[in-house]
Each structure stands twice: as structure tokens, then as C-alpha cells.
């Protein structure tokens, strides 16, 4: 019998990995910054991440999605990872967690 995938548990591991990736211009991880819109895990262990950037002209527009892909793929349970960038809705400070706002002195 094939082992049942616990997508919730794997999702939590992926979030932990995402919290180790920082926007180089802001001292807050990309998850708390609100750049991650969705993490989808299939039963084939494929992961799709829908994310945005702080601006369309972000200097790390090339490297940040690649870093996200590589770090998520480094998890043993993950077969493949695809990162899709979207600007709908556009990023705003409202997407940041309370902790991120506190860290940046916005509260």
C-alpha cells in the first residue's frame, strides 16, 4: 500500500523553509512580508508556489523565485517545485504579518 501524503505537514515544512528566505532590502522573511500568496502540494509531491515581489522592478526578480524553488526542492519529500510570479493583487504593506510590521517599525 502506497504511503499517504500528509499535505498539511509538508505544507508546514515548506513554510518553515520559506521563512529562511529574506528580501535583501528588507530584514524580514518573504513569508512574513506577505510575498507568498499560496502554496499548493499535489499528491505527487509536486509543489506550486504563487508569490509576488514588492515591485515589478524588484532587483531580485530573477534570483528570488529561483532561490525559493531551490530551497523548497531541497526538502526530501518534494519531487518538484514551480514558482509562479503574479502582481494581482499587487503587494502592499497590508499583506505583511503583524510581526513583520512591528520589526519594521510600522506599528
TrEMBL record:
Annotated Gene3D superfamilies: Fe-S cluster assembly (FSCA)
Chain ranges passing through the membrane: none
Domain MIP18 family-like: 12-85
Pfam families xrefs: FeS_assembly_P
PANTHER family reported for this sequence: FE-S PROTEIN MATURATION AUXILIARY FACTOR YITW
Protein name as catalogued: MIP18 family-like domain-containing protein
Organism listed in the record: Zunongwangia profunda (strain DSM 18752 / CCTCC AB 206139 / SM-A87)
Taxonomic lineage from the root: Bacteria, Pseudomonadati, Bacteroidota, Flavobacteriia, Flavobacteriales
Amino acid at each position: 500500500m502506497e504511503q499517504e501524503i500528509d499535505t498539511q505537514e509538508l505544507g508546514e515544512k515548506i513554510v518553515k523553509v520559506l521563512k529562511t528566505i529574506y528580501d535583501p532590502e528588507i530584514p524580514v522573511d518573504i513569508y512574513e512580508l506577505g510575498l507568498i500568496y499560496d502554496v499548493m502540494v499535489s499528491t505527487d509531491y509536486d509543489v506550486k508556489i504563487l508569490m509576488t515581489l514588492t515591485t515589478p522592478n524588484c532587483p531580485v526578480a530573477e534570483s528570488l523565485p529561483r532561490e525559493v524553488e531551490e530551497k523548497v526542492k531541497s526538502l526530501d519529500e518534494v519531487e518538484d517545485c514551480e514558482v509562479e510570479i503574479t502582481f494581482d493583487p499587487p503587494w502592499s504593506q497590508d499583506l505583511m504579518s503583524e510581526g513583520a510590521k512591528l520589526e519594521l517599525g510600522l506599528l
